[in-house]
Amino acid sequence: MSEAETVPASPVALVRDYEFISTAEHLTQWISESEAHLQATGETRVCLDTEADSLHHYHEKLCLLQVACGGRFALIDPLAIPDVSELLALMDRYELWFHGADYDLTMLRRTYNWEPRLIRDTQIAARLTGSRQFGLAALLQNVLGITVSKASQKADWSRRPLPDHMLAYAVDDVRYLLKIADHFVAILTERNRVSWFEESCRALQRDVAARSMVPREDPWRVQGSGRLHAKGLAILKAMWDWREGIAQERDMPCYRIMSNKQMVAYAETFEAGGVMQPPGGWRPRWKKEFHDLIATVFRQGQDAWPQRMKKVKGRMTDSQRDIVDRLCAQRDEIAQQLDIEGSLLGSRSTLEQVVSDLGAEGAALMDWQLQLLQPAIQSIEVSPPSEA
After folding, report:
1. Residue 136: count of CB within 10 angstroms of its CB
2. Which of 108, 111, 134 is nearest to 119 (CA)?
3. Integer Cα distance of 345 and 351 in angstroms
4. How far is CA 337 from CA 59, 138, 184, 334, in A?
5. Of 85, 117, 235, 269, which one has the fewest beta carbons inside 10 Å?
């Protein structure tokens, strides 16, 4: 599709061309009818999207499944239907398309312990053709000329009943996905990048599947805590535990009480001997408990304070950092010629891994990335800079 196609957005009140499914019997019927439709039309692709309630509740949960099968659309309520194994089996019989699949795959794995057989991701396809605006709303506007409302993007999807405007928003997440897919697959084919796309989708699946679902031993050691010493770590852990208790009690996301970044900043102030005052908008009970936990940390004494984690990974040498800089520069030159983002050829952390183990022949990279970067990597192996 070389020209932007203008498709009118679906009217909320006039046409309801989807089914809202909240019973197992209705789901079984819809799956049977949809499979027959797919077989009759010869369509080999289906689309899936999810909505959750992480912005509104303490325990994040899957609240809606949006499905498209050959022009048939359904919004399935997983809160009312705990067992959707029939639907997942249907998805596994076809090529399954998402947009920005990482979060969806994570939630589906966590909720159903399910890893799809074969996925394709329109966000990956868009980025590999050079799109810098790759959110679904931007792609719909730029490719199809469709403007969709994002008003429900941060809504509470656990509410019931869901109003019509939220249902319309949800179904549009899968309604046009195959049109977007056709557009970018045509460009990928023209530029001989389909293999890049398919390997990148497989890599995403592997990455999600490899993530541990076991809770971290010390979840309070958030980003930025590595620079804290025992005193700062003690107050950080105390704030984390207190925040978890309040969030669970009130069934609200932790960040709405205090963000991780705020907690680290408070811990740095505490460590430096500064005065810690709770946010002005807090209720009196929270302010009192905040001051109480500060006093408790002081009473515990240094022997009870947690210690800094010992770094397992060795630091890179100056020579290795120089090699990474050179490799990143060459990566960016290649990416510019291909009109794609440099990070798609390998993030800096990935290239650091490559440099740390040059003998592994770029094992951290996908095959298509390695093929493009191989000359740069080989030149580094042949003539590394001398140690200063």
Report:
1. 21
2. 108
3. 9
4. 45, 24, 19, 5
5. 85
CATH number 1.10.150 given to 225-304: yes
* CA–CA distance, 6 with 380 (Å, rounded to integer): 49
Q: Would you tell me which CATH number, out of the four given (3.30.420.10, 3.40.718.10, 3.30.450.40, 3.50.50.60), belongs to the domain 18-210?
A: 3.30.420.10
**And the tokens for 341?**
């983002």
pTM of the model: 0.89
Q: Per residue in 302-359, pLDDT tens? A: 999 999 987 655 678 888 899 999 999 999 999 999 999 999 999 999 999 898 876 6
For 101, the 3-state DSSP assignment is helix
Give the number of other Cβ atoms within 10 Å of residue 181's Cβ. 20
Residue whose entry in the numeric block shows the structure tokens 């949800």: 170
**Is 175:73 a contact under the CB 8 Å cutoff?**
yes
90/196 Cα distance (integer angstroms): 27
